[in-house]
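We now fix the convention by which a protein and its fold are recorded. Think of the row as the fold of the chain written in a discrete alphabet. Here is one such record, which you should read through line by line.
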Amino acid sequence: MAGTLSAPAVSSAAPVRINGTQTRAVAAGARVKAAVSDQPRSYTAAQAAELTARKQEKDNHTANLGKQGPEPRHGALGPEMAVPGGISTATASVLRNSAIPASGISGGASFSSFVQEPSTDANGGNIFQTGNWYATRSTNNGATWNFLDPFTLFGSGFCCDQVTQYDAATGRQFWLLQFDNHLVIANASAAGAGAFTSWCYWNIDATWFGLAAGTTLDYNDITITNSFVAISTNFFPTSGPQGSAIVRLPKVPMSTCSGFSYNFLNRTDSFTFKLVPGSTDTLFWGSNWGQTNGSSFRIYSWAENSGTYFFWDRTVASYGFFTRNSGQNCGSTDGVVKNWCQFADSRTLGAYRASGVLGFSFNAKQDASHPFPYTRIVWFNESTKAYIGAGDQWGGWGAIQFMSMAPNSAGRVGSTFAWGGGTGTTHYYPGAAVNNSPASAIDTSPNYYLWGAGNTCTSSGGLYRWGDYLTVRTYKANPAQWVAAGYAITGGNCGAAGAYSEPHNVLFS
């Protein structure tokens, strides 16, 4: 393990107080019973192509917020990560590695997209996982899996992105789904043999966020605090500025399918709010997109007993902020492994609150000190929001991208990320890894538990694409551990006969 703190560069700017949250009331939710099957409904090749097109249409939205910061003028922040397959002993120990059955998701004509974006959480041996385009559960600690049908369970129009989180206080699994013109937030009991089958849900359209009806919502996130389920989204109106918004929904009445009042806020000067796992009586979130992209970060806080929220703008160590197809290259140096992060950008993807530290992670572009795209992590003091420093998860052998993070009960941080690249005659097709680090340092020996066996496909405009996010959660049955989702293309390059995108669910410490 190597400490990677850089010299503090604390902004003197005072917090900005915003009294602009608003409150609305909604009626009770609708109840629905989910059927489960070991074989989900199959789709024809034409239907699968239509699903891909619908997702690409959603994901083609991008933002033009903020100004570009300076090019980085410093060395790498800390030593590089261990080479995959080397002799270093991994700090993260994989306790269980469950592949979601290929019989249910393999091939181009079923529920598995090459852009997986998996999300998961668990109540002990009862595990729930989602991805494009499936939902599945295990009630025997990952030994077997049964599938739910998100296309029919909550009405028509299901599109794509899903995220899920278990709340131990209410015993409910919360599930957020993207539909063509709205979101769905659902919850079900996570206990017993009938776990994840009796759902209560609400349709959430743009007006829930104080936005005009018909405004497009996309790229959604969820985190659960002491009293609330917080949901963030990016919004794209038919005219006018883009931005990000949050609703704060009370979890106790939701868990009984009752009506409730809720708060919301929206802003047009930040893009992609990353909600902070580990938030308790105060919700924290952050964004690195909207002020000086590449050298600034904005931290937000919203106490549960208040209608007022605050934000702090901080200068951070500069890095290469990239947008879609702006020169980033995660492929191998000889081009055999294709540029799997070509469609990606530098929005904030990971966050945590642990040991008095607020940490955030995001993709960064290759530069003179980093041969491949890498993950930058920035750290702030929870109390003062002072900038502590930054560190990088990087490799001279390949790229590290799409990191998700969560704290454990010991104040350490578990992460899941994608990796791949290669130099010379070495080819690392993108795979998945987990890591276990202190709250304000980086361990350099992650566990590369899942190796890829093929390239991803191209998306809109012929750009190679891996996905937008992965997920790791604090494992509630043993809060010193984590449960995470990752995936890899196996069976050959995407599009070849026998190739498929295989999601995994792992428990690690």
In short: Residues 113 and 367 are 31 Å apart (CA to CA).
